[in-house]
């Protein structure tokens, strides 16, 4: 039985770290390897790109990296900050020389990332070929004709039953092609102190995407202060919602600005008129017989935080600005694809606007009226010579922004007014808007009638690290810990804190590995041995790349991460943005395909797929009797040293050895009959 020096050294190091750092209760999560490959012929090199903002995600990436290395893949792992590196390399690269390039040329290969999803299953904004980054959400750069056709059918089909059938078809395609390799759907856990008597009932119902919900809180004493702690920086990308895709920025922007329509809650999911006039049963929007012309009547008597009246001109200004490439919105391509251009939004009176869409859009109320809060023309028109300067202005970045064009802090029509930034504590201070307008359930009068809207001062503070945040909550320094602390990994704290001061919910979140679909091995497949054996055959190349992506998915443990690391908080994921529980058959989003299952954890299947793509493993290491506690060691080491939350991980014993012979590739995940 032979051993490579590299493998023996790595094993000794891992076991040594384990002996020093493995706490009681985690030793049961193990990886058994009867054989690992020392490499592949030819060499298959990929880089896993991991944001530094989340130490737990770093650990999770190390878990998957070790599995890929066991398959023989030359898998490197690089950790970089979201801003500017992750954005510049993957999510919104503005350098055309970087867009679509592999990591070694300034782009990315595979990106570990998590994000929150909407309630409505609309893959268009994330995957359609018209939505490429940097002006769209398709950072994968997936260009697939079948996907585009299904995306278009989903977004333009108004009949829900027919539309949901297209959603299910799309899921089958996405689960097979894997531009995104989903890992799990998340469950949120938040903790709060006892000064807010209705906090548990509020956070059980009002959470992302109806988030945050400070105005719904009662307070003891009345006119109290609510200090909201989150692990990510806010402002991060900025306070202007059209310029940010950051979950953390929502803690500010959603309380400052108001959209035309608002999702009432995550239970009944009713769309309420907000700045639009009307009531839930008689909203101020209507659709013409052509299914493309939307008329929106606006609420009267609404004022901006600095006094001027809100009018239809603000609505047109917002949607024109959004579609202006100079402004630089990361969702510009999506908005323009739906709205069709600045000439398609017209003002017919001070209280009415009309949207002339080029094609029907099934989610217009949810994703256009409800997706874009309205911005103040009277302030931001000062940037008309160069709208790109809004990004670095005080209005968008009250923490670091420039006052050269305008010295205005962010001003909206929402329930809270931005006051100041404290650089010493990393805290934004907002105060209640006592001139907040009236509308159903979320308006001033409706809130006060329920004994809510009692928080006077609202502070948003960045505290990086779960242990630090728990200490701050326990000491009374903050009042609330956001779900991104992943308190599910802190069972002793949850037990001692008490169930009455905790809320748990399905939070419409996903953790994934996003794949660069322009990558010559992972995406197009043109550099794979299989493609080179079939020169000029683009189908063969794409097939080889798909086999490699599927191999990575089969090498991704899901269930044990959820059960043993996350204490059961989470569900193994199949696709995004369509979310549901494959075990119960219950979908959080409409059209969830209950016939699909997540990829199983099977390194033998993964190795077969790699061999089919032309990558042959070299001789195994013969680790037979050794138990390599790879996964938990890395997780525990990083989490212990960083004192932060765990994110999304799973580990399970390997199903046999990595084979040395080639067999036919398996089908994609089987559907349940």
What does this protein structure show overall?
This protein is of the alpha+beta class. It has two domains: 5-185 and 508-642, no CATH class; 231-446, Dipeptide-binding Protein, domain 1, CATH 3.90.76.10. The chain contains 20 helices and 23 strands. The strands form six sheets. Strands 3, 4, 5, 6, 7, 14, 15, 16, 17, 18 and 19 form an eleven-stranded mixed sheet that branches. A hairpin with a 4-residue loop joins strand 14 (416-422) and strand 15 (427-432). Helix 1 (5-21) crosses helix 20 (630-642), helix 2 runs antiparallel to helix 20 (630-642) and helix 17 (538-554) packs antiparallel against helix 19. The longest helix is centred in the first third of the chain and has 18 residues, at 160-177. The protein is globular and about 75 Å long. The two termini are 45 Å apart. 55% of the residues are buried.
Residue share in helices? Answer: 25-40%
Q: How many domain regions?
A: 2
Would you tell me the structural class of the helices and strands? Answer: alpha+beta
Q: Over the alpha carbons, how many angstroms does the gyration radius reach?
A: 25 Å
- Number of helical segments? 20
CA-to-CA gap between the ends? 45 Å
Q: Per DSSP, what share of the residues sits in E-state strands of 2 or more residues?
A: 15-25%
- The overall pLDDT, averaged over residues, is 86
Q: Mind describing the biggest β-sheet?
A: 11 strands, mixed
Shape: globular
Residue windows where pLDDT falls under 50 for at least 5 positions: 1-33, 621-673
Number of strands: 23
